[in-house]
Amino acid sequence: MAPQNQPFATRIAAYGKAAVEEACRLILAGEPVAVPTETVYGLAADATNEEAVRRIYEAKGRPAFNPLIVHVRDLAQAEEIASFGDAARALALAWWPGPLTLVLPLKAGAAIAPVVTAGLATIALRCPAHPAMRALLEACGRPLAAPSANASGGISPTRADHVVKTLEGRIPLVVDGGETELGVESTIVAVDEDGGIRLLRPGPIDFAELAALASLAEGEGKSAIEAPGQLRSHYAPTKALRLDATAAEPDEWLIGFGAVAGDDSLSAKGDLREAAARLFHALHRAEAQAKACIAVAPVPEEGIGRAINDRLRRAASSRD
Ligand code: AMP
Ligand code: MG
Question: Pairing between strand 122-126 and 100-105?
């Protein structure tokens, strides 16, 4: 018999019409379901249903003070939930659907379960591009709260088997859409009342591009990079991790990049997009090795490399 904290036999269903229908049925019944997005796999639940959203926190073991991103079908659905000024609308029109999350004032009376925002007056919204998540949003007709589909503190999942590694028995279904395309979580920006934006988490979209468009739309607002107020423990492998390594110590599994060849490589040709797409799988693989520690080659701090380094720095510092 399954132990009490493992109430489900987790099923993996290949992405397609039948899988989306099953996922939709479960979500409308208040269960969380893992679904691929273009960034990482998300654990989606009906954002209007308090009990359903609680099940996300339970399945992940996520602290309830850490708010969730809500995924929407389109800008019209987003505007029912949050207040959009000119800058926010311009950003959404330019990058949605895509890997951009906007933190905006929550509208009074919006049909969002309070546990989603952890009691904040703002809400994080994203319109994803992946056809599986889009089909699910369409089928459910509800906004879906969806953090990454891994146990809290674990490495984000970019494949269905990564999800199963930590959520097996804790959720009923994983929709398997293969490897995710981008591999790192969305860029998160807060849009202030004056139209200025603040970077809360680097991601696939460069902050400079967003800031340029926001100031074009609004004129006045000052955009700035803010020290991300995120939990350090968010991206935590179970092994010690050393950054900027050009050679491995005897007890280290080295993840290379470009000219630094290792036991594995993020991208032998030094391509940052490829490196981002492979990052979490490389960390999952490194965790599974006999070597006690992980080392990672230097990755340039430019474009999506900023997001890669952000995730690596968190992983390295999480054991302090
Ligand atoms: P994830 O766990 O990958 O879904 O990450 C979601 C991130 O969005 C978390 O780190 C939150 O801190 C951030 N977030 C969600 N809602 C808000 C909000 N209202 N204000 C600021 N950050 C938020
Ligand atoms: Mg996460």
Answer: antiparallel
Helices (H), the chain: 17-28, 50-60, 75-81, 86-95, 114-117, 131-140, 160-167, 207-218, 272-287, 305-317
| Ligand 1 mutation pick, 81, 200, 314, max ligand atoms within 8 A of CB | 200
Q: Tell me the per-residue pLDDT of 239-295, one tens digit each, with 9 for 90 and over.
A: 999 999 999 999 999 999 999 999 999 999 999 999 999 999 999 999 999 999 999
CA 69 to ligand 1 center in whole angstroms: 6
The CB-based long-range contact list for 206-214 (8 Å cut-off, 24+ gap) reads 206/303, 206/304, 206/306, 207/306, 210/91, 210/95, 210/100, 213/87, 213/90, 213/91, 213/94, 214/87, 214/90, 214/91
Domains, the chain, ordered by start? 11-218 (3.90.870.10), 240-317 (no CATH)
Distance 185 CA to ligand 2 centre (A): 8
Read off the DSSP letter of residue 148. B
User: Would you say the CB of residue 120 lies under 6 angstroms from ligand 1?
Assistant: yes
Query: What would the pLDDT profile of 78-110 be if each residue is shown by its tens digit?
Result: 999 999 999 999 999 999 999 999 999 999 999
Number of C-beta neighbours around residue 34 at 10 A:
28
Q: Tell how far the Cα of 201 is from the centroid of ligand 1, in angstroms.
A: 9
Q: Quick check: CB of 317 below 6 Å from ligand 1?
A: no
